[in-house]
Amino acid sequence: MINLLLAPQAVPLKLVDIVGGERVRRRLFTLGFHAGDIIERSAQGILRGPVLIKNIESGVTVAIGRSVAQKIMVEAVHG
Amino acid sequence: MDKSDAPVLIFIGQPNCGKSTLFNAVAGHKAQTSNFPGTTVKHTHSLVSIEGRLLNIIDLPGTYSLHPSDPAEKVALTHLFHERPDIIINVVDASLLGRSLELTLELVEMDIPMVVALNMADLAKKKGITIDAGKIAASLGVPVIPTVAAHGRGIKELFEAAFRCLDEPCRGKRPRWSTDVENVLEKWTARLPADFPCIAGRRFTAVQMIESGHLFCSEFLEEIDPDLHKSLDEIRAEIAEKRGLPAYEVIAAERHHLAQKIFENGARVARKRKRSWNERLDDVLMHPWLGHPILLIVLLVFFFLIFKVGAPLETLLIKPFSSLKALLGEWLGGGLLFHLADGLLQGVGGGVAIVLPYFIPLLFFMALLEDVGYLARAGFLLDTFMHRIGLHGKSVSPFILGFGCNVPAIVSTRILESRRDRILTSLLIPFIPCSARTTIILALVAVFLGPYWALGFYILNILLVAVLGRVLSLFFKTESPGLILEIPSLKIPSLKNIAFKIYFQLKSFVQFAWPLLIAGSVVLGLIQSLHGDAIINGVLSPLVVNALGLPRELGVTLIFGFLRKELSLLMMLQALGVGYRDLLTVVTRDQIVVFTVFVNFFIPCLSTFAVLWKEVGKKIAFLSALLSVSVAILIGVLVRLVL
């Protein structure tokens, strides 16, 4: 399990947990990102910029700051 | 039937679900629409007659859930509870049905008659999602009507269903959660006193209390029954202990699973093999290296197009007014009547010939950027730079809207979660050149010094905003919450929507700004004929003449610029007593630059000041005015020294 910042781009990843506070967790839930969802890092802003994450199943795309990305724990999808 | 008797119908949905487009299709284009989450930051009322029945329709800001996380979402919740609607129309983005149903399930629990508008059904189809509205309706227990609001499809059927629901209230099926959660919930619902003030159904109140803890009815709880407060903590702890997760998260997960179940039961998703055109376009638009040059090119193209369209139009329109002014001079001489007529002519002519040629193309391009969905992408691209000034990418949209008008831009800061970010963004927005100031920059700097000077002016302006942001952020030590911004799908803009947007902004200009321009010009004419301008100019001459090196006559124009920024430009010509094309006979090019710099930064206009007061408070409004005046004097003097 690694945080999203360390995960490779354009590869399906399983969202394992959001280790942030209540505000971040609630916000990501309501936007449609839950533990168990398959997501991908679809783009990365320049100069340590924000990260673009996409929920592969729903297609919801969200730009998140690096501090938020660090709180999203993911693991590789096997098979 | 009057307004008070008409049933209240509320449109509610998640951001960017096409709610305002649907509202406009019914109420006649009263709500602002765009392809950016959180455009509707205010609620909009409209009394309409549909099929001979009067309805009081309300469009609320989009909200992801009934647990607000920013001021715009709070507006939605407050009005939902306050208006006590007779019926809710829950607008749902069919292409994001699974997620949207989570809000629907919250609304169902309110126990208010409801109809679901399954909007953007065409977009869902393109994404390979086939929805059986009947099955979704059966799961929810309320009518579900497919609509495509942008093309007016399904609206008749939606209202037919709404009327049926009003006549015979259709309440949704109460969501049934896992047994352990249901048991605790039932226990808590029974624990609430009989006279407990339920906002909606008892169960809804109970769920909200468990989910929100002390945030929901907290003051009331403290006051009436401290034991109830303690019991709530115990119930929340019980759920948390059973599931190993905080209570709010257990409820959110239950709702999520139920929404997914309803979605899977009522929809089929065909997996796409090829990436769609907008996904491929997004790869380029948000590419880490290509995205920024594209953003720069888009802004430059818009800038030059606005100038290239505006300048010839202005030349064409100004001629008849110049001829009329010459004739007035011959007919009326130089007395009071001439000054009043000249003021009237300057006000009317300035509005038509100088303001509109730049204003209309600017409105067009702003509407285009909004409707395509480019603002959110700009937010992603500029996030890194925004961090340098103590903000993040979510503030980009209010800043870009500020180029159109600072007033809605300041209102739109409601999409920002933290007050710190709202204040900082609101203090910086008045430094963004709005359409009125763009008119001045183009009509003075671009016309008399060349378009590249105007472009340089903009670049310096943006640099100034960056420096100010950096300095101001030193005084706001609280850390900004991290960026979380939904990027909506790119959409082909609807020309009809853009035309309506331009029409409504023009209408607002003609109704509110133009009378000010005309009245201001006539008042200046009157002051001139009574030689009152000499007194004002005398008082202001240390600033105008000594510090800024401008003609003494321009002092009076700065005062009036507080009403509308364009007024300073029109009054400049009037005060100097020259026609627009002869301006260089009385002032130098350097003086034009200094005047434009000063007017651009000097004190926010009256409307901006008022909205600052309303949105972020009196202190911040006065701080903004003080900041603007100081910056205008400082930069004005610096520019004078450099040139």
Explain this structure.
The longest helix of chain A is centred in the first third of the chain and has 9 residues, at 22-30. Chain A has a 6-stranded antiparallel β-sheet with strand order 1-6-2-3-4-5. Chain A is globular, with a radius of gyration of 11 Å. Chain A has helices spanning 22-30, 66-69; strands spanning 2-3, 13-18, 38-44, 51-55, 61-64, 72-76. Chain A is α+β, with helices and mostly antiparallel strands and 79 residues long. In chain A, strand 3 (38-44) and strand 4 form a beta hairpin. Chain A is built from 2 helices and 6 strands; from the N terminus they run E-E-H-E-E-E-H-E. Chain A has a single domain (2-76), classed as Ferrous iron transport protein A (FeoA) (SH3 type barrels, Roll). The mean pLDDT of chain A is 89. With 643 residues, chain B is of the alpha/beta class. Chain B folds into 3 domains: 8-167, 3-Layer(aba) Sandwich (Rossmann fold), CATH 3.40.50.300; 179-269, Helix Hairpins (Orthogonal Bundle); 291-485 and 494-642, no CATH class. Chain B has 27 helices and 9 strands. Chain B has helices spanning 19-27, 71-82, 97-108, 121-126, 133-140, 155-167, 179-191, 202-212, 218-224, 226-243, 247-266, 277-285, 291-332, 336-372, 374-388, 396-402, 406-411, 419-428, 435-449, 451-473, 495-529, 532-547, 555-560, 565-576, 589-601, 606-616, 618-642; strands at residues 8-13, 44-50, 53-59, 87-93, 114-119, 129-131, 144-146, 267-269, 484-486. In chain B, the strands form 2 sheets. Chain B has a 6-stranded mixed β-sheet, with helices on both faces. In chain B, strands 6-8 form a two-stranded antiparallel sheet. In chain B, helix 3 (97-108) packs across helix 11 (247-266) and helix 26 (606-616) crosses helix 27 (618-642). The longest helix of chain B is centred in the middle third of the chain and has 42 residues, at 291-332. Classes of the chains: A alpha+beta (79), B alpha/beta (643). Strand 5 of chain A pairs antiparallel with strand 9 of chain B.
